Amino acid sequence: MRSTCSLYIDTGYLLASAATRVTGTSLRSGIHVEYSPLISSLVAAAEARSGLPLLRVHWYDSAKNGVPDAQQERIGELSKVKLRLGRFGVNGEQKGVDLRIGLDLVAHARNGASDVFFLVSGDDDLTEAVEEAQVHGVQVVLLAVPTVDGKPHGVSRHLIRAADELDSIDDAAVDAAVMKVDRQPLPERIPPEPTAAPTRPTVTVARSVVRTPLDLAAIPQGPAAPRPASVLAYSTSTGSPGRALPGYGDGDGDGDGDGEQDRLIDEVVMRVLASFKESATSDDKLELKRARPSIPRDIDRALLLDAAVVMQNYDLDEGVRYRLRSRFWEKHDEA
């Protein structure tokens, strides 16, 4: 059997890191991705780096109930691409993706599928799988997305130590395939100048008016009930508001939270909000408004991931999670 290389792509890591490079936050809705050229550039990098032909690309992502959406189906139809899907948990976090990557790395290494494995991920949970694959004589090379400063983005130190090498994806390839979404507000329509109507008899015809749910939502319903100063929320999957932490978000400035940590939380929240507002459609904004106090899972995931990166802590405690979600609504209302 001829020697080959294989490519294992953690889509969550790839897109979150690329989005951070382009927009400053990991919110995936803030970017548009040309998947075919991006995958082709990764294949070319793996083949050039190893000097071996590619056996296969393994593309790992999450999907609702494990069923691929239209975009994922198109990716799975690309040449030499194998689609491997996990699912979303009740809190909006992906489930089964890391396990699938780890199992595939070990099984393919045991079966001698390829000589060199290229892993596009930074997840600490893959460390043991990398080490087990190496036991079977496979070389494992990490491919990281570079930050704007040229450093590898969001790669666990444990994973770096376990892998044989760490290399960066060509930044030009990322910039060419990943673009920032910027929905400019529509220009205000200027009504045409009224024209004189002809002096002739007119006939008025009564018409029924059909109102859509969006129309009904726009009708003023009287004064709204005041919202609490601090609303803490989980993802839309749970719909359950959290409990306010003592001394935080009550406006007295005597909070128990660490000042530097609070500054980082505000920094993360403002970046995610800015990216959302630049890329969101009117329907997206209406959905966010209707979901309150819950936070849509893509926004919630970006908040948690960005906070984990800036705090260098990939196991955020409940206190930090509560404060992130609380500050999201507070900053949203201030804007």
From TrEMBL:
Domain NYN: 51-166
Top-rank taxon: Bacteria
GO MF annotation, one: RNA nuclease activity
Region feature Disordered, mapped onto this chain: 220-261
Regions crossing the membrane: none
Protein name stated in the entry: NYN domain-containing protein
